[in-house]
Design goal:
globular; Collagenase (Catalytic Domain); 28 helices; 662 residues; mainly alpha; 4-stranded mixed β-sheet
Length: 662
């Protein structure tokens, strides 16, 4: 009975809102059809009006319906966002914060309830010990990182560099890393010193070096100057000569060939030290710019070994401090214990797979079946519509290129939660079997990095096809991935996978029981956006298997393609690939759901206001414009928006001329 009264109250509130005039959010004649049956729904009944009406009431809190949607739709749909939420908070950041809180609740419960069933699984025990060691952190002691490094018999610069590479650091001198090459293969890559990154010798790093060397150091000022001179020399050796070609200089070599080309290093020894295996001379790897590598190795072999060692230690400490969410980089005011949230955020980056498993098992698993039923269904609709649009070939592409792009679209996959597909709990237990966790945070942090990068090296050299298939069914990304990449849905070009993180799989952006206008308003636009990234100006060259092709070289010869790009590229500050995905992804979603004029009339306003939720509060970053600019620009290109909101020609949201793309 209580639920009935709640539903009646919501209906009264929404009916009352209809009296606000044409600018209010209408709810009459909404399509209340449902993609879920009662058996598939996590709750009963499927797609309940109560859930949907409550969400609509939330949307109205964020709106300013007295404003003119045709002048500034962001202000209309998100105008009250800042009065409800703090500066810097967006729908995605709030969703991420809710997930952080669930992890904190899980670990605190496990700490205080030793009989919890999770304690029977070793993975939870290791996560809990890591969490406890992080919570116990006090004043930063960076020297502890250096003390944990294994002892090296000699003093050669490459030996220390190889040891640091085992923990994922490899940006200076000579870079050796294992990198994903395509949708089914990793490769060892050798590159020259990264001269774009330099050391900022802070007092904390200097003090760590001073204590680690028992005071045998020049002054901070002197050492800073020595490091600057070293970096200047390294840049001169690594930087291509002015006027040189921009062509890719990466080539495949056997280990024997690399040894012949660059005899200044014992490559078998260095690779063994960093990657833990003896590679045969016939083993293939990638190397970039051999002349620069030859110069660098020759110089480093002659340089002051002690200075090179100090510089490597300093760069390593800086790298660790700059990893996303290292709790040491933001110490508490009086060096009190690290906050629970800081530790969880750190663990979500550093222990990505184990943390995702815990979230799946404790929180998300019960809704997965319903979510995948809905999301995969919408995804297939969008793929079919996308392929249909490509086949129209409005740009006049040649048949070979068109077929390649169609293959890429058909090969797109989706992964909800970014976990390996079709594996058991035993798979995760085996994954963490050799991961060592104790009571010391510094040791635990390094061991977690060591565990991840050792696994990467093993994956690169394995010939087990079944194992490869599992590990390439998701993006097992490393601790360096920034929040603005993996906190929201994203297209992973090397695997042709759209990753849907847990943070997205909750209100206000998504709910499997949404009515169509709410479901397609965000989900279809989000999936459409990521699908269009597969053929945007950045990622179009990757084929369905993640191999690099020359598609962009062919496209720039097409005058229709260039005209479409130039229309969108209206200033030097445009994030062009994001604008392409915004415009074309929005078009794809509309073509999939809103083709019927009657559907637009009854559901259009709710659809567009729900679409706006993703952008409310979004700030600009290095990859994206502000949410307001992205939302208004994308919808201004859609005649359907102007139709739904009765925008007069020439208003900002109904411009005289528009851009279109795919």
């Amino acid at each position: 009975m209580r639920h009935l009264w709640e539903l009646c109250l919501l209906l009264l509130l929404l009916l009352a809102s209809q009296g606000q005039g044409v600018k209010a959010l209408p709810t009459a004649h909404l399509n209340q059809s449902c993609r879920l049956t009662a058996a598939e729904s996590a709750t009963e009944p499927a797609c309940s009006p109560e859930l949907n009406l409550r969400h609509i009431q939330l949307l109205k809190r964020y709106m300013r319906p007295e404003l003119d949607a045709c002048q500034d739709f962001y202000a209309y749909a998100c105008g009250n966002w800042r009065s409800v939420h703090k500066m810097g908070e967006s729908a995605m950041s709030l969703s991420g914060a809710r997930i952080d809180q669930r992890y904190v609740e899980l670990f605190e419960r496990l700490l205080h309830v030793p009989r919890s069933t999770e304690h029977s699984l070793p993975l939870y025990g290791k996560l809990l010990r890591y969490y406890h060691s992080c919570r116990a952190l006090g004043k930063p002691r960076l020297r502890r990182y250096l003390e944990q490094l294994p002892h090296i018999g000699g003093s050669h610069w490459a030996d220390l560099l190889a040891v640091l590479g085992r923990y994922g650091y490899h940006e200076h001198y000579v870079k050796i890393e294992v990198s994903q090459h395509n949708a089914s293969q990793h490769m060892i890559v050798v590159m020259p010193h990264n001269y774009y990154l330099n050391l900022s010798l802070s007092g904390s790093i200097y003090n760590a070096l001073r204590r680690h060397t028992h005071g045998q150091l020049p002054s901070l000022k002197q050492l800073t100057e020595q490091f600057k001179q070293l970096e200047q020399t390294l840049q001169e050796l690594a930087q291509p000569p002015s006027g040189s070609s921009d062509e890719d200089t990466v080539s495949t070599y056997t280990l024997e060939q690399l040894q012949q080309e660059l005899p200044g290093l014992n490559w078998t020894h260095v690779l063994h030290l960093q990657l833990g295996a003896i590679y045969p001379g016939s083993y293939q790897l990638l190397a970039d710019d051999l002349p620069a590598l030859r110069q660098l190795i020759g110089y480093l072999n002659r340089a002051d070994a002690r200075l090179l060692q100090l510089y490597s230690w300093a760069r390593f400490l800086q790298h660790l401090m700059q990893l996303p969410h290292n709790p040491l980089s933001d110490p508490q005011p009086s060096f009190s214990a690290s906050s629970a949230t800081s530790c969880v955020q750190h663990m979500r980056k550093t222990l990505y797979l184990a943390m995702n498993f815990a979230y799946e098992r404790n929180y998300y698993g019960k809704q997965r079946q319903a979510d995948e039923h809905v999301i995969f269904g919408v995804f297939e609709e969008l793929k079919q519509q996308f392929a249909q649009q490509l086949r129209l070939n409005t740009l006049g592409l040649n048949a070979t290129l068109l077929d390649a792009l169609l293959d890429k679209v058909q090969g797109l996959r989706i992964n909800v939660g970014n976990l390996p597909r079709n594996v058991s709990d035993q798979f995760y237990e085996e994954c963490v079997q050799h991961w060592r966790v104790g009571n010391d945070f510094y040791e635990n942090h390094l061991n977690s990095l060591l565990h991840y990068y050792d696994h990467l090296a093993e994956l690169e050299r394995t010939e087990d096809a079944a194992l490869r298939q599992v590990w390439f069914s998701f993006n097992h990304h490393g601790p360096e991935l920034l929040d603005n990449i993996d906190a929201t849905p994203y297209f992973y070009c090397l695997g042709s996978i759209i990753i849907m993180p847990y943070a997205y799989m909750q209100l206000p952006l998504y709910e499997s029981q949404f009515w169509p206008a709410l479901l397609y308003g965000d989900l279809a636009n989000t999936l459409g956006h990521e699908m269009l990234h597969s053929i945007d100006t950045y990622f179009v060259d990757y084929d369905a298997q993640g191999e690099m092709r020359d598609y962009s070289d062919q496209l720039v010869l097409n005058k229709n393609y260039l005209k479409a790009v130039n229309c969108l590229n209206d200033s030097e500050h445009v994030m062009l690939n994001e604008r392409i995905a915004d415009i074309s992804g929005t078009r794809l979603a509309l073509n999939t759901y809103m083709k019927d004029p009657l559907e637009r009339r009854h559901n259009g306003r709710l659809y567009f206001v729900q679409f706006a939720q993703f952008f409310c509060g979004e700030e600009a970053d290095i990859y994206h414009d502000t949410g307001s600019k992205r939302l208004n620009y994308a919808l201004a290109q859609m005649p359907e928006f102007a139709e739904v909101f009765n925008c007069a020609p020439g208003t900002p949201m109904n411009p005289v001329s528009r851009c279109s793309f795919w």
